[in-house]
Amino acid sequence: MSDLSNRPPQYTTQERIPFWRDGRILGVLAQIIFVIVVGSALAWFIGNVGANLVRLGPAQFVCLYGTEEKWSYRCAFDFLATEAQFDIAESVVPYKTSDAYWDAIKVGLLNTAKVSFIGIILATILGTVTGIARLSNNWLLRNIAKAYIDIIRNTPLLLQLFFLYFVFLLLELPSVQQAIQPLGLPIFISQRGVNFPKIVTLSSFAIWFAFVILGIIQAQYLWMYLGNREEKTGKASNRAWWCLLSFVVVVAVGWIVASSTSSNEGFLVAKAERVREFEDLESMMERRLGIGNLGLLSEELAKENLTADDVTAAALQVCSLQGAASEVNFTAQLRAAGIPYKVARFARPDQAIQAYDDEEKACDVFVASKATLAAERDVLGNSAGHLVVSVREAPARWSVPALEGFNYVGGSKMSLEFTALLLGLVVYTAAFIAEIVRAGILSVGKGQSEAARALGLSEGQRLRLIVLPQALRVIIPPLTSQYLNLTKNSSLALAIAFPDLWQVMTIIGNQSGRSIQPILLTALTYLTFSIIISLFLNWYNKRIQLVER
């Protein structure tokens, strides 16, 4: 028999753990305390806001059309429908001082979205290249990338913006007349900003764009067809080349079709000028200059048979509407034909037709769409003495900046403030992205790179096909924070007078006397930006995650 005396003593009642040592009870108490603290903080916040609203008075809640005796939160934002009465230097959409506060907010919102969107793209490219250079075997490239990262990351962004705007751009850039033109390209950098070409679309663009979509679909089907044929025959075919060629052919055919089928552009000219088609303008200029061939104009100038003043005096005077695509289409053909011209731009068609019909003959021709020309010709005193001449139309034209007087016209422009803000945000954020990219690349096992080299892949193929796809799982989560930081840091535009959302809201608050509403709208806007960026990158992060069995 076993020795019963060695058995442990038996307890009939279970020993209770004191509540201050019971993990379950402590967890519940912690949650209760947390709820009490959060509720107290919210109550203090709401009470503080209410007290401040009482201090501000009922003027914060006055309805736009009449004052109510009691405060009306429904009317708290009515004041945003009144005229803004302040100018905004840079706008993505048309804006004038007589527009409402809502329109001013839309301008600031679009300016913030523009600089954030472009900045995210450029910062991602610069940060990725710098992060790869940080791991390069080249000593000079590696240390240049390291110095850039260390200097930028440890310098306040506001200080960098001040340096870029007040020291580098304002003081170092030349005047408009001496603008920098890098590599001879039609890009002009001066103290007025950066002027560069832009694409202007005409009415036939929709037809051509349909062919572009058709070309993309055809290229995809051709890619799949050639891939299936490779699997069956075992013979490789240059799929990329054939797909690109088919796409180019379809797009080119679409360009020809769109150009030949559309006839919506024209110019108004007096019948006395004996101009019945565009080519007659060359004959008209030859008569004015007294030369037999307009192509010999440069030779006549070299022989001093003609002077620059003679050419200027005989130049074709063109009336056009401001920012009209018709002007870009017409002047592009004038330059191709070698016809000297001058352009007078007007805000409204009635102003242009008045200048065209002036006794002093301020304009020889009025360029616009045929519908506009037909409507304006009817208001002329002698409408039968004027003719609408067709102008060949292309789906799209390049609008190239040209110096006229003391500024550039045509093309697109980035103001100096926008340029400084964009450069500052890109350079600053890219330094942080570079370290994220470097950490992501280092997280991929060395065996992956060794296997890629053993297969004969080049360094570019190794990074593009092996390393970076695996590194994205590490890169994307912290990259989200940098995108959010760039978007929120755009509010520093106030320091260099760029009209972003925060500056517009500040002006509205100071001008209207309302303080709560602009701040609330600004907070909700930045919160919306953050949610959109986070949702997109979280969705993409899930798409690239490894699927485990």
Provide tags for this entry:
single chain; 549 residues; alpha+beta; MetI-like fold; 5-stranded mixed sheet; 17 helices; 9% strand
Radius of gyration: 34 Å
Report the biggest beta sheet as strand number plus sense, adding barrel if it closes: 5 strands, mixed
The proportion of strand residues reads 5-15%
Query: How many DSSP E strands?
Result: 12
Mean pLDDT: 87
Q: What is the name of the CATH superfamily of the largest domain?
A: MetI-like
CATH class categorisation of the largest domain? Mainly Alpha
Walk me through the structure.
It contains 17 helices and twelve strands. It has 549 residues and is an alpha+beta fold. It has four domains: 19-56; 115-184 and 414-501 and 534-543, MetI-like fold (Orthogonal Bundle), CATH 1.10.3720.10; 201-260; 264-399, Osmoprotection protein (prox), domain 2 (D-Maltodextrin-Binding Protein, domain 2), CATH 3.40.190.120. The model has no long low-confidence stretch (mean pLDDT 87).
Task: Set out the fold topology.
Elements (H helix, E strand, L loop, with lengths): L22 H34 L44 H34 L4 H15 L3 H16 L15 E3 L2 E4 L1 E4 L3 H29 L5 H23 L3 E6 L9 H10 L7 H6 L5 H7 L1 E6 L3 H13 L3 E6 L2 H8 L8 E5 H8 L8 E5 L5 E4 L2 E3 L2 E3 L2 E3 L1 H27 L3 H9 L4 H31 L11 H12 L3 H28 L6
Parallel strand pairs: 5-6, 5-7
Antiparallel strand pairs: 1-2, 2-12, 3-9, 4-7, 4-8, 10-11
